[in-house]
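Table S2 (continued). Query chain:
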Amino acid sequence: MSHDDRQRWNERYQQRAPAPREPSAFLRSLEDRLPRTGRALDLAGGPGHDACWLAKRGLDVTLAEISDVALTQAEGLAREAGVALALLRLDLEVEPLPPGPFDLVVCLNYLWRPLFASLPQVLAPGGLFVFAQPTRSNLRKHPHPSARFLLEDGELPTLLQGLQSLSITEDWAEDSGRHEARVLARRPSKDRHGGARP
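Corresponding output:
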């Protein structure tokens, strides 16, 4: 992203109503499957609703976000929630991901396809990846996000190189009203011979 992109996101977060928002319904639906200890990375995590929810569960959470305004909002939200977040201003389209290993990586409502290739390097063996993004079918009901920010229908499984899908759906989501592809995946553990096992 360029400086203009950062400015655009700053303006968007400044204009957004400050009313408290719940963490992602999809993320909450996975509550029983997500770790309660270890390190988590929230990519493009905005004002930190998901990151704070993860931190309340006991995880050591790093929130990576391009917008200074969103990071300031996340800092305030974490303070109110009584949790600690590591806040990292990061342009995910040009800068590398923070060093792992992470036990959980979350990326909701943000699409940058080259990120998928980096996931096996930052996830711990057995670490989980949670991802959700609208697909092109979403345009049948909603003009936004534009096609530039949408997955092609059926594309998500092809992006999960080096990860094992634990659950994957692509449909109209009741909680968001959008046509989304969603996945819970993990990096396979390694056996004593160094090979991957499911």
